[in-house]
Amino acid sequence: MKKKLHLMASVMLVALFTLVGCGDKKAETGGTDEAQVLDSIAEQQKADSLAALTQAQEAEASKKVLAEMFEGTLKTALETAELTEALSGGEFTVFMPTEEALEEVKDKLGDKTEAEKILKNHVVSGIIAVPDMMPDQELETLGGGKLKLTVQEGLMYVGGVEIMEEHDIEATNGIVHKINKVLIP
User: Fold this and answer.
1) Residue spans of beta strands (DSSP E) within the chain
2) What is the pTM of this model?
3) What's the CATH number where 83 sits?
4) How high does pLDDT run on average in the chain?
């Protein structure tokens, strides 16, 4: 897309310089004068800006609130722990276990107190993207516990659990990093 825009802008500039070099004469290609070329360039720039803005707005609109990103066992546990509303406001980083990982603690997630403890151990205040994470950094969870970030063989770990390739998933009020184990408090 950018290459196409650069090519289009280059062609328009060449046309403009050709017209300017000809003074008040009409361009040889169909009698277009300088003002029409400038208007054409302005219209194209306006259209390109509008398209970029629309694309950005669509991307933003497709984002969900963190609480809406939970599915399956995790969604049920969130409802059991009555944390849906809490994760709908504020900004958070969520280390989201896979459905398979949750199977290991599914029985505990049916209990409100246990579900709340486990889920709060996966959430920290603020938005922290993987590139912003620092080795040996400690993150305080909503449950009051600490999760230490480490790096092993170029991979980032949180609380001893690898952050999967599916990370930096943006929400309107935070960011999600998938992990393949549950962070037990």
Assistant:
1) 92-97, 123-125, 138-140, 146-152, 155-158, 161-162, 169-171, 174-179
2) 0.66
3) 2.30.180.10
4) 80
